[in-house]
Fold DUF445 domain-containing protein.
Amino acid sequence: MSLYIIPFLGALTGWLTNKITILFALRAFSKRQQHLADQTGEFVATQLFSFDDVRQQLADPEKIKSMIPVVEAHMDTFLREKLPEAMPVFKMFIGDSTIQQVKKVLVTELDNMFPEIIDQYLQRAQKELDVRAIVSKKISSLSANQLKKLLTVSLRRELRIAELGGAVVGFIIGLLQLWIALHHSN
């Protein structure tokens, strides 16, 4: 009767072995956190993040056109309220039709300038921002427990499969041992 417990002991052993291995692997990740942070930062900076992609997205004519109503609203407030407050004489000589014309010219000019402004801003940002260093600093600033939790949560499914895989392999080995034991006893 006690022989029949062998597969279950094998399953327990396989599960426990994989569980301990996973715990040691997670501990190793926390000990090598700076190295992991540097490698991740390098990967993000060279493979995932591209200022050219950002530039292309932001300079998209449709996205720029979607900003025009906001610009027009600010322009209208400026021409109708802020400019007359700063220069009361302006209100005496400029009427609604002139304000509409000035706004139209300014909005058209801004529509033409936005792609260039965005491009220049991103070129400067590309020179000044070190994506690799930012990502590396963020990851290395995580506590060991935060990093362990992040890995455990993001790899939860895979870790469970590894644990169960150990149990299944252990159970199968236990069945083989049981089979061998039963055939040798006969």
